[in-house]
Design goal:
The chain has helices spanning 27-35, 71-82, 101-109, 125-130, 147-158, 168-177, 206-224, and strands spanning 8-14, 38-44, 57-58, 68-69, 89-98, 112-117, 122-123, 134-137, 191-192, 195-196. By secondary structure, it is α/β, with parallel strands linked by helices. It has two domains: 8-158, 3-Layer(aba) Sandwich (Alpha/beta knot); 173-228, tRNA(m1g37)methyltransferase, domain 2 (Trp Operon Repressor, Chain A), CATH 1.10.1270. The strands form three sheets. The chain has a five-stranded parallel beta sheet, with helices on both faces. Strands 3-4-7 form a three-stranded mixed beta sheet. The longest helix has 19 residues, at 206-224. It is elongated. The two termini are 22 Å apart. The structure holds adenine. Adenine is lined by residues 92-94, 118, 137-139, 141-143, 146, 149.
């Protein structure tokens, strides 16, 4: 378990540090950042670039389109930011293992993360093994770079830190980790554009309400995410 008197720390290695904290600077995560519950450092990879132009990329060995982030440049950026650092080192990549709530919980419970944001066609494969990078994907689609994926990952971790969400967070997560989607929610007005709140929710019968929610949860999961049923949490 991490030392919770120290802030959870995210170090981002990127060619676009101005993208941070971005949306994480407002609302609950922004308030927590201002309070010192977590800390963010966005570092410019180009500071470790080669030559007068601070070049960070080169053409792919074997030919082909696009550019590849150099292993020596990225390694220098990682070493300057996080040598002898116990935090996991992540590389945001569509090729990575899909991010899960289970992984988010583990990351959130630790000291933080060092997050490398890829650009171009990819990064030189050798730095992945050479610096022990764990490739993480946020879904089966391709973003123009890892920055937005890093924001997603950090948001999912920060909201679980003690005091960030208060009581709101934990219940939902439990239900997600139990492998079911959430049941539908309603609030006033009781009827809107001809659509009524299901009667059971106004019945005051807590047992019946709990059963209805359970059934709806299962129905939605079966319809939308049958892959979640009967398998593990990931
Ligand atoms: N970089 C580009 N696409 C990505 C994705 N789907 N997940 C994580 N990083 C990415």
């Amino acid at each position: 378990m991490a030392d919770r008197t120290a802030p959870w720390r995210a170090t981002i290695l990127t060619l676009y540090p101005e993208m941070f904290p971005g949306p994480l600077g407002i609302s609950l995560s922004g308030d927590a950042l201002a309070r010192g519950t977590w800390a963010l450092e966005a570092r410019q990879i180009r500071e470790h670039g080669i030559g007068r132009h601070r070049s960070v990329d080169d053409t792919p060995a074997g030919g082909g389109a696009g550019m590849v982030l150099r292993c020596d440049v990225l390694a220098a950026a990682i070493d300057a930011a996080a040598a002898d650092d116990p935090r996991p080192r992540l590389l945001m990549s569509p090729r990575g293992k899909p991010l899960s709530q289970t992984r988010v919980r583990a990351l959130s419970a630790g000291p933080g993360a060092v997050i490398v944001c890829g650009r171009f066609e990819g990064v030189d494969e050798r730095v992945i093994a050479g610096r022990g990078l764990e490739e993480v994907s946020i879904g089966d689609y391709v973003l123009s770079g890892g920055e937005i994926a890093a924001l997603v990952l950090i948001d999912s971790c920060v909201r679980l830190l003690p005091g960030v969400m208060g009581k709101i967070a934990s219940g939902e997560e439990e239900s997600f980790e139990s492998g079911r989607l959430e049941y539908p929610h309603y609030t006033r007005p009781r009827e809107w554009e001809g659509r009524a709140i299901p009667d059971v929710l106004n019945s005051g019968n807590h047992g019946a309400i709990a059963r209805w929610r359970e059934t709806e949860s299962e129905r939605l999961t079966r319809e939308r995410r049958p892959d979640l049923l009967g398998s593990g949490k990931d």
